[in-house]
Amino acid sequence: MTRPEPQPGEPVPFLDLGGINSRLQDEFDVAWKTVLDHGGYIGGPEVERFEREFAAYCETDACVGVANGTDALELILVGLGIGRGDEVILPTNTFVATAEAVCAAGARPRFVDVCPDTLLINPDAVQAAITPVTAAVIVVHLYGQMVDTGPISEITARHGLALIEDAAQAHGARHRARRAGSVGVAAGFSFYPGKNLGALGDAGAVVTSDLALTMRIRSLANHGRSHTDRHRHPQVGHNSRLDSVQAAVLSAKLRCLDADNAHRAAAMSLYRALLPDGVAVAVQPGAEPVYHLAVIQVGDRLTVTDALTAAGIGWGLHYPVPCHLQPAYQDGARPGQLPVAEAAAGRIVSLPMSPVLRETQVSRVCEVLRSVTR
Ligand SMILES: *Cc1c(COP(=O)(O)O)cnc(C)c1O
Fold it and tell me: How much is the pTM?
């Protein structure tokens, strides 16, 4: 099913989820009918197949489908035995779910600052935040760009800490040939509809090459059930499972992911070509981002967002309040303590970005931006 070409002057949506998913409507119809026919709605062949495909895609040995990306991170922490009394280091510039997962596991989030050019976690800040109770570092591959985990994995190895990836925005990203999800002990992915690989509802996954951890997480996600005796529960678990129909949808969409990511990269190149140098968030050497978001930094943000709105162009803010300044997470740091993230929070704007965004739409967005930024 093809949608009509957008006309000049038409609104540019921030994210056209209907347009993204209508491309695969026939495959979704088959998936839904198949699941309806066999009557297994949770787990089953669709989930096993997607887990195999996604582990291979991420270049890891295993994948466990779960209910959402936040659960994926929480289950990794619990599966590693991280909880009460432990501190987990994470960047303050992330979606609040990263911190939420740390608290849900019973541990304490320790927020650190980011690098000014990429807005990704700063390795020097990680080193400075380590205490005797630090148990793990969560790197967040924000906006689709992988953190350069080289310096951080040296730190975690030296201090015996777990390195965990929040890859919820980075399906398919690479850094120096390593895939997002394959560099830490385990990674959490979200398949929330708006992510680069999005379901038709909530879904998530853990990927790892640690098979003992895989087994623990599989049990934890299924009520702490024993793998050999379904009536034995050796640990208190959760209910966090992947639905069959979502798994079938994700298998169909995984086949388009590389092409979709290439489309996003082409759109981002055009943004960069048409916008003033240094406005877009920087890409570090060796990185192959998948541009979940097209983030720019501007001085007078209100003027920019007003102009975009007036022109019918969608935009977003990711994220205008750093986690350490959120009411729920304020016990750790005070305003002024993580200055790079705090300054960036007032300057960032996310522009329309998706695998169905047209060149003409990117040009229009840039025309509006050029009229208000000098
Ligand atoms: C979306 C997201 C999550 C949470 O995923 P859900 O599936 O919504 O639970 C976690 N971290 C980051 C960086 C995200 O963007």
Answer: 0.97
